[in-house]
Amino acid sequence: MKTKLFLALCLVMIIVSACSNNNDEPANRVDPKDVKAKSASFPASAYDSWVFVNLENGDTAIRKDVNEWEYHQLIVENGKYKRNADGSLAYEVTKTVKAGTPNEPKTWHLAFHVYDVRTNGGEAMITKETMLDKVKLTDLTSGTYEADKDIFIVVDMAGMQKNLMGYSKGQANLVLGKWLTSVGMPPKRTLSDKVFVVKFKDGSYALLKFNDYLDDTGKQKMIKFDYKLIKKNA
What we know:
This protein has one helix at 2-22, and strands spanning 38-43, 49-53, 60-64, 69-74, 76-77, 80-81, 91-97, 110-113, 116-119, 123-126, 146-147, 149-156, 164-172, 180-183, 188-191, 196-199, 205-214, 221-230. The chain has 234 residues and is mainly β. The strands form 5 sheets. The chain has a 6-stranded antiparallel beta sheet with strand order 1-18-17-16-10-11, with no helix packed on it. The protein has a 4-stranded antiparallel beta sheet with strand order 3-2-8-9, with no helix packed on it. The protein has a 4-stranded antiparallel beta sheet with strand order 7-4-13-12, with no helix packed on it. Strand 5 (76-77) and strand 6 (80-81) form a beta hairpin. Pfam families: HmuY (PF14064). This is HmuY protein. InterPro entries: HmuY. It comes from Hoylesella oralis ATCC 33269.
């Protein structure tokens, strides 16, 4: 009888422990409402570079894209672009450039390529809120997060008139990329009014509210956002 009781107690302890680990312990986390918001503003990168951002101290660093590059020549048949079975434009790879030595800063949270965004091994989601101070502690663990994905990123547009473009075999977070949508040519851009959340590997979170994609003159591309960096309690 004592043996059965002991085994039952052990089972309960295991279940409780598992539930605690899967809950991402919101009770042990700083409340977003108690974190002071900060602001970030910097020029958008050139097409062959990234701007790395340290949300801890606000530092930014520009680095060249050192991923492998591919040059894609669009295929034209009978005066029209050839398309694949899935509807995508068909192309042939005319040149590749080998990846270079990694050059990322020692500490960074987000990186921006023009208006593309990637995380330092994090995941992102969009909330229903439009103000940083409206995001609750429970919101951090109640949504569905998505990690960065492998994509082709435009890095060389010199041959665009000849249907030749250079692409980096890089990564970006497609959820964070929704902070700014673009339609048509010339592009008509729309800024999202939602708050984004990024979950990092160390258990910290960042709330992001993007404010603008141009400078005050409306001519230079900029990245402007308010944010809160929410650290995990020790």
